[in-house]
Amino acid sequence: MQQRQRTFSSTRTWVGFFIGLGLVGILSIPASGAIGQPSSSPHPRLFATDKRIDAVQAAIQNEGSHHQQAYTAMRARVEASSPNNLDAYGGGNYGYRRTWLAREAALLSLIASKPEAKSRYADKAFAALQAVFKGDHQDRYPHRGYGLSRAMMSMGLGIAYDWCYPAWSLKQRRWVKKKIEQALDAWPEYEHANLKDDRISNWVAVCRGGELVLMLAAREETERGTRYERLKQDLIRHMDNGFGSLGVSQEGAGYTEYPGTFLLPAIYATQQIGDNDLSVIASLRPWWKLAMYTHSFQPHSRKFLQTGVAHSTNFDEGWASLLLNQVPDPQLPQFVYWYDRHMGIKAPGEPREKFDADRAGTTWALLYYPKKVEAQDPTGIYPIGIGDNRGYYFFRNQWKNENDILASVMADTVHHGHAWDQPEALAINLMAFNTRFFGGPGKKRSDKFYSSLLVDGEYNFEHGSRYTGKKSHFEVNRQSGYAIVKGGGLYKQLGVSEATRHFHVDFSLESGQALITTMDRIRASTAHTYTWQANLGSEQGSDGISITQDREAGRPTFLLKGRNNGFVKGWVIHPRESSITDSEDPLQIKTEGQNEEIWLVLFVGQGVPPKAKVSGKGLESKVEITGKTVQWQKGRLEID
Q1: Do residues 282 and 8 make contact, with C-beta atoms less than 8 angstroms apart?
Q2: H helices within 305-379, ranges in order?
Q3: For domain 14-368, is the CATH number 3.30.420.40?
Q4: Where are the domains of the chain?
Q5: Measuring CA to CA, how many Å separate 346 from each of 53, 57, 552?
Q6: pTM listed for this prediction
Q7: What is the pLDDT of residue 301?
Q8: Average pLDDT over every residue of 269-292
Q9: How far apart are CA 280 and CA 274, in angstroms?
């Protein structure tokens, strides 16, 4: 495999155990992470070094390659667009879309080999930036108005200036530089509650990252040295407080990806000028690994396992492509395999829908996709489960296609103020066969949208997200994983002294099948109604799941049918008198008592659901399914 020098690096050598990966690795990256050195011209300064542009120019000549398809799709968008015709860039604020056009046109100006083409694309980028300041954008500009809009347009303004500088006239350069200085002068006066306290909010990454890229693109970090250091310190605090060891954020996957498209460029840009303060901290958060375990290959908007307030699909606006530059070289073949099927040439959809097509994300797909790396299937190399130190555990049976089985269980041990959050103690997710079977609440706050354990019909409540759970145990073997999470303060507020969920997943059956068993153990001083609940499909609506109920081996059962002939069949092993609600969504299994256990066995597969044989009573029951035995022994769920 070809070794790369990468802009995401540090001068230190990090030795560590990648949590859940089962591999001990040494991440040793040269101090100068840039691919090639910038030319003698002051610009381009960021991201698009001469050597990287040469590599892109060569790669787009390869018929059917990633680079050729991404380049062709991006060029088609730019050619079809003008500052007043932005349909190719989707909906939303025209100021946003004009800066996206400017960024993509600017990169085309660098890639183009003929002088007239360079000038033509550079002029289109300039016209788009002019339109930003002439248009009516609800008082949203790089120098005033809503902070997130300022950041979006600031980054586009800065990158376009940096990349178009060689092709622009002196008059064009001066006009844009004046606008940049106007924005940089205005930023320090901007205040918002989400930019304070622990710096957890995605606003920190967006606003500080956008401003920092703008400053570096204009080569103003020395003149504005005090502000430069302030931006870095805010981003360092954001990474330290906002992300766990795997890179999980309390705000959720969507609010990691969207702000990440500002944060990672800021990190790469500072490292590229020789400042490693941000890259050292960022190297401890393997966001690329989190993506591999949580993002599916489903054709319906590339769904992921939900956390926080994330909706059920990602933004496809540059995050996956930017992560190509974060992955340690030894593990790049596995990430490229995932990337190709999630966002690249083997992903579902037309080329115009791939390569991080939204918000000028294709620029990163062209710059950071490695030219000579042979993709390698992670299945059998990576473990089936991985965990974050804040109590988030993710499991995946394979990296093949839309039928992959992905599941998660959460403790949610950390909460910070002035940021999005949801209570997530004991919450679960399940996706398989192009279907989201169990989903999360997104931004909805009604109890019915949570996949967790309810007490007297309640889970969320006023200020519920302030109360967190506790992690207890996590282990993975070759084909199975086990996590134990506790309800902590969240369930104490619901009137329960202790609530513990055991979650055991086994992938040792035939390919494309899974056996999952959960045990909830609840202790309280008075009687309550306890509800094991699963939101069928997420807050955005069901994936067309049908549900039927029955009894088998003396136990209540349910059958969920989704796409691709996939299903989830469940047996309520204990209490056998539990009731399954008649409603289709959410799925609810209820029991009443004081100190109770709720034990379920789930079989995930395709085709004809299996039948189970159950012997014994209560927690001493033994369940036999397709040659596997599930039982509760010595305080653990066992699958043999």
Answers
A1: yes
A2: 319-323, 332-342, 362-368
A3: no
A4: 14-368, 390-607
A5: 24, 22, 42
A6: 0.92
A7: 67
A8: 97
A9: 12
